[in-house]
Amino acid sequence: MVPDQGITQVIFTINNNNDPFNYGTGGSPRWPSCSKNFVLYITDGEPCADGYLPNSLRDYASGRSQYNCSGTSCPAVGSFPASTFPSCTGGGESSSCGGIVSGCYVAGIEDVALYMHTTDLRSPTLGVNNMPGIQNLTLFSVFAFGKGSTLLRYAAINGGFEDLNGSNTPDDQSEWDQDGDGEPDTF
């Protein structure tokens, strides 16, 4: 569960019997460290209704990654062009989204991607059954019916880089483009 999410209904409970990280059998839990975990995100368009993110994740990538969008646009970085999301514009203001455009139509997937890729999701302060090592998620982003989405590229970079220099950010192209083709390896 993401902090500040405020879910009031428990959908399922993680315990030793149904913990996806428990590789034990016969009632003896075994949590291996550093399990690889992936999210395969397949979409037919740019996600843009992310204005309902918890405050702790809203603009999480700001100041942490240059691959950060704001509102309904992404800045140009390197060879990636600046872009806007014409299908994501709303009319007026929305009080439930802290003054963000109606419907909360704003970028945010790149923020969530960086958070889930750089945060230990099973630490003493987050998740259950604290496990040794870093338990994070790697995002693979698939734009099924299009190409050229700067937002999804930034999400793939933030959620799929290999931190070669220990900065915990995708600050070198070789960390997210190991084959040198100019595209994120997880896009």
Short description:
By secondary structure, this protein is largely without helices or strands. The chain is 13% helix and 11% strand.
Entry keywords:
187 residues, little secondary structure, two-stranded parallel ribbon, two-stranded antiparallel sheet, globular, disordered N terminus
Task: Describe the structure in your own words.
- The structure is a single chain.
- With 187 residues, this protein is low in regular secondary structure.
- 13% of the residues lie in helices and 11% in strands.
- It has one domain (42-176).
- The strands form three sheets. It has a two-stranded parallel sheet.
- Helix 1 packs parallel to helix 2.
- The chain is globular.
- The chain starts with 37 loop residues before the first strand and ends in an 11-residue tail after the last helix.
- The model is unreliable at 1-7 and 91-96 (pLDDT under 50).
